[in-house]
Design goal:
heterodimer, A: mainly alpha, 75% helix, globular, B: Rossmann fold, 8-stranded mixed β-sheet
Chain lengths: 334, 319
Amino acid sequence: MVSYRKYLVERTLTFIISMFFSITIVFLVPRLAPGDPIKTALEQVIVGGGSEIEKTVEEYKRMLGLDKDLATQYIFYIKELFRGNLGYSIMYFPTPVIDIIMRAIPWSIGLLTTTTILSWIIGTFIGAIAGWRGEGSRFFNILAFIALGLYVIPYYIFAVILAYLFGYIIRIFPLSGGYTPGLMPSLNLEFILDVIWHSTLPALSIILSSLGWWFLSMRSMIINVKGEDFILMAEAKGLRKNRILWKYAFRNAILPQVTGLALSLRNVVGGALLTEVIFAYPGVGYLIFTAITNMDYPLIQGAVLFLIFTTCFLNFAIDILYPLVDPRIRYGEE
Amino acid sequence: MPDTLLDVRNLIAYYMTPTAPVRAVDNVSFNVTEKEILGIAGESGCGKSTLAYSILRLLKPPGYIRGGEVLFKGSDLLKIEEEELRRIRWKHISYIPQSSMNALNPVMRIEEQIGDAIINHEKISKGELRKRIEDLLVSVGLSPSVAHMYPHELSGGMRQRVVIAMAMALDPELIIADEPTTALDVVVQRGILQLLRDIRSKLKASVIMITHDMAAQAQIVDRLAIMYAGKIVEIGDANDLFNDPLHPYSRALISAIPSISEKKKLKGVPGFPPDLRSPPPGCRFYPRCPHRIPGKCNVDEPRLIEVKNDRLVACHLYR
């Protein structure tokens, strides 16, 4: 356990250092980029004289603190970050960027966590049984073929197909949005059902496309493990087939699946950009998309920073939790 | 006359290949009596392990059992129901596999793995189970604390000991040890052989000990069977057989054991074992045999017959 503590400290330091670098890069890049966003923005609004624009630009710069030197700006930036202040959106001025992100996040996390976990569970279990039954079963062979098909088709294709089939041809699901306009977002049954109804198609598109992969990888892992000596040994011990599958084969085959799940869970904050765009789903993906099309710099910057933070944090969490799943991981000791 | 525990009759086990089946075990008969250690020796690829898997009915495709009987205390293991077989496995016949390295489940603690075998066949309380596992570990020369460890925390020799402890867990009547010392270095090997010899006196079990290591066989077995190209060519009392091997292949194999006391040039067995997809007609050793009789040995397949007291040889030289 001493070595685990050391490992913990190392991981924490890595997390802090990588966060520090990311924050600095996010700070520097827009300042190094050519062009002046304020000027560009104002030129679209103010028609006429150059000196007027210059004056207004100076005014805004002073207001935003951009007239100070880089070091002062940096310290100010870090200080504000710690207070959770990511600046103000241009699109939705004067709403703070953090508020906008916070509003989008539950949608993305809700949609992607649910879909990722659901498809992981379904794919892993069916894959395990398919692998265990082996090549002999025609049903599972056909299933593997279908899974391969699902895996190679990108999720946004499913999104388009589903939207067309169930939103346009058979109109049983809504085509866009996170909930029916006019409904007050609250935690009552009516609203929750409405959200589920709206999320069905986006969720289905993501589940369908990731299911194939979970199925195929688990199936091949089980087939691999089946050839191991400890499976033969378990059989020689006279254990029941089901016990061998779940306690010997499954427990070994699941390890890479857990890594896979953890790795894909860190994408949940980023959102499934194209699905969200196709269904105008109010998540982070859709937010970034609109921020970019509207050149909303503070919002883009804030969203990127937020994504970096969550990615780093989830990686950190995976690193910490993984040794608890697989006893062979030795916390980096010699 | 001791009672026969295991009676293998005309066992045939092949491996399917695209061209012709590999005749890995071809018409093999032998028996194991109670409390004896039977050694089975032969070159790599002569069908020793296939024989072990076949007895346990653990042969995996493309391998298949084509015929014969494996009578264990009178009932044919090849014919009984899956469920009945499951109950016999480990409780009555346990197995020490070729590489104990991979025979242990990497994500289960040693106690769970040994315990799994026990609780599968017996009703036992948690406390008794723990005590029993610790006793088993101590009996193979390990510390009881090994119970809480994972396989990757143990050395190769320790893992082999764990597997041996596991094999003894239910006091089986028969233990099949398939090259239990192959993957180990010489020093550890000796320790394991010593251990096997010790448990032999303590245990009431019979052991089938499979190895290509003649020196290891010499140290431990009561009776010895020599296998060549899927067939048993000679079988008899171990001491007797070591001192006076009759079959030309047994002679070659035994003279290939290095000796420290005598200074002699090591002799191998010239040539290679035959392709078991199309073994030579007649005696399978014919192409390599120094005493072959053309026109007889390559035509007529010699049968295993008793040539002297308790010694069976399959060779036309002894008729």
